[in-house]
Write a structure and sequence with these properties.
Layout: H1 33-59, H2 66-99
Helix pairs in contact: 1-2
């Protein structure tokens, strides 16, 4: 595959307005997509830590109810799988956008 070369647009063919609009700030009180994503990842991390804590308590013999440990472990597994699937969908969407002709 030959290397990709970029050439500039001649001055007489430049657009008078920018092709891409700047990202506008979100109004106060509303969260951006990045904020939602960050919050979701923090929740996944918290669930993972809780499952690890429950596992440590089980190993030390301090847990009387095994079902609570199993529930925490399954919550951690499911939340991680959900995060991975969301990541995969975001990457697919990005790749699809990059394949669009301009």
């Amino acid at each position: 595959m030959p290397p990709i070369t970029l050439s500039g647009v001649p001055a007489n063919q430049r657009l008078s307005t920018p092709a891409v609009r700047p990202v506008e700030a979100t109004p106060k009180g509303e969260m951006s997509f990045g904020d939602y994503l960050s919050q979701a990842l923090n929740q996944v991390e918290a669930v993972q830590k809780e499952a690890a804590h429950q596992g440590a308590l089980l190993a030390s013999g301090q847990v009387q109810d095994l079902s609570q440990v199993m529930i925490a472990s399954e919550k951690a597994t499911l939340s991680l799988q959900l995060a991975i699937q969301v990541r995969n969908k975001v990457l697919e969407a990005y790749q699809e956008i990059m394949r669009m002709p301009v």
